[in-house]
Amino acid sequence: MPSPVQLESFAKEIALRFKINAEHTDALANFVRESTDQFNPNRLIKSATKQQIDLREEMEAVAEAQQWLTDALYGLSPLARDRLWHPLWEMPNRLPNLIGFATLPPATDFPEETAFREILATFAKRIETRLVELRTVEDKGGHPEKTGLRIWTARARDFWEETLGRKFTYQYVGGVHKGEAFAFCSFVLQHIAPDVTETALATAMRAMIKPMKVTVRYSPPRESQ
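Above: the chain sequence. Below: its structure as tokens.
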């Protein structure tokens, strides 16, 4: 990782190259510092699809545990159910080596047992609602979407637009990547992640460019005279 002195020098070089006013130098330095600190860890982030699949597996494991616990509770023997739920087991002065307190065959209703079963049933519904959308996610293969690079590009876009007030645009003309925003991103990445290709950056920029707000006016045709 570059030293603070190197980062400061690099930020000054960027400001000079892209004509960034002195009033924005602190924000520029922060962007350079944070992008340097966070870019490589962010590159380890999986794609959104991979994240959803991993999440689904975790949630399914919870669902299986909930179902196992429900089945186990409903399958308890009378003596095990007595020992788990009968309130007299909470008595500190109860006699030792007792088998149970409930009548046999057990006809006792335990309020705590009923409440806990209701909680489990509600929890099962919660898990199911969280899994509905995840069950449709499929890994269709293809090239990974480079989530970490997109996160960095989104931060660069926000700095470019919100701090500098410039348009974050990209064009590919005659086999050449064009646009001041592309040049800015490419220049910074050459120093913090030189293995990122221009093609990968262009893909990330196209994904992160905010959609334009277009107002369409409709003028009805005039009636013929």
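Residues 211-221 have pLDDT under 50 and may be disordered.
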